[in-house]
Amino acid sequence: MSVAALALQRNKYRHLSDDEWRWFLQQVEGRERTADKLPTFASIPDWWYPVRLSCEQCSSELTAKYKASIIAKSQQLTANSRSTMVDLTGGYGVDTYFLSEHFAHTDYVEQNAELCRIMEHNKGLRDTGDGFREIAVHNSTAENFLLTAGQYDLIFLDPARRDSHGGKVFRLEDCTPNVVELMPTLLQHLTSEGRLMLKLSPMLDITQAIKTLAVSYLPLAWDVHVVAIKNEVKEVLLLNHNPSPVTRVPSITAIDLSKKDQAFVFTREEESAANSLPYREGLGVGFFLYEPNVAILKAGAYKLIAQRFGLRKLDINTHLYASDTLVHDFPGRVWRIKEQSTNQQSKIKNQKSKITNANVLVRNYPLTAEQLKKKMHLRDGGEKYLIGARVNGKPTLFWAQRWSE
Fold it and tell me: Mean pLDDT, to the nearest integer, of 380-396?
């Protein structure tokens, strides 16, 4: 029974107080909303769930496990030693749960007392194998906790991205806690080989964020991970590799967790040095058109993606690519081109008498998708694609079909 239907059955549960009834509904709704997102939690009897907003805002199991895998690769200590970590913005505790598997002791810090109560209960459910290890719960702000804290092998923060009026914010200095102001303190609480991981908004300007975080007397090499699921960026992770001046070149990883073997790893220097082939006019009907997944585009590998896969870039500001023959295992969408034209009044326009439905996309094109759809008298749907893009400076239209291997 859904929580909406259950909520109408209050008379059947008169033995419950109003508070108990609300808690009961919260547990049903929490499991209902997160069963697919957090299957491990859903499988644990007597697991407690927080209010709807916390369930909606928490990490998914996929992204939390990915964070844990990054730490497992970089962490020199093991959970059987004296390794320690702190999650300074604990929330529902999803990231805490999976990260803690790699540490002997974890401090969970959260200013919301109710979330702390839920964590105290859930961390005691020990029938989950290597789930929670030793976890101490602290009802405190990150800033206050750090006043008396020791040093850690991992400090993890997921700053709240809401202002005092509930509006969304994206700049680091507008989040809570203010990581920019807190940075010197955070670095003091890292061990000599400690790691600092920040989970940030998918809307983040990565380059600007790293500049904002720069500490002139203590430069950091931030590895970047752009994490997507089903071609939607879910979060941007920044991970530093040492709280001291370093010479190593940081890497950028763009990954869609719903696609196997589609991690694209590169450096800013590689992207700057890359040379992409220009689009060659007259590729002809039947050539292939490519669009990288959103993680790669967010990460900024605009030229390098073309160089690595031997593709031609349509235009310097059009992040679509072409090839005569199919490139297998491309990390993104692929179309087979049926027709193209730079003259909208010619044969491309004549196609509208044959096609009434199409999926319309525009990339660096003078019209919006809605404007182009209206101009071509098209309805949404069907198997055909009409793609508008600037090619070597010229607005161009392509009729295309999605290609799947």
Answer: 92
Q: Specify whether the backbone of 364 is left (phi greater than 0), alpha (psi in -120 to 50) or beta.
A: left
311: tokens are 């593709």
pTM for the full predicted model: 0.90
Going by C-beta distance under 8 Å and a sequence separation of 6 or more, which residues neighbour residue 197?
A: 67, 70, 71, 154, 155, 156, 157, 237, 238, 239
Q: What is the DSSP letter of 214?
A: -
Residue 259 lies in a domain: no
203 lies in the same domain as 66: yes
Domain identity same for 240 and 302: no
Q: DSSP assignment of 259-271, as one string?
A: STT--EEE-HHHH
Contact criterion met (CB below 8 Å) for 263 and 308: no
Measured between alpha carbons, how far apart are the two ends of the chain, in Å?
A: 40
Owning domain of residue 28: 3-49
pLDDT tier for residue 76 given thresholds of 50, 70 and 90: low
pLDDT digits (tens, 9 = 90+) for 17-68: 888 888 988 988 999 999 999 999 999 989 999 999 999 999 999 999 999 9
Structure tokens at 100: 């803690």
Report the 10 Å Cβ neighbour count for 328: 8
Q: 272: buried, middle or exposed (CB in 10 Å: 19+, 13-18, 0-12)? A: exposed
Number of independent structural domains in the chain: 3
Distance of CA 330 to the CA centre of its chain: 20
The answer to whether position 241 is within a domain reads yes
Question: 239: buried, middle or exposed (CB in 10 Å: 19+, 13-18, 0-12)?
Answer: buried
- Under 8 Å between Cβ of 210 and 222: yes
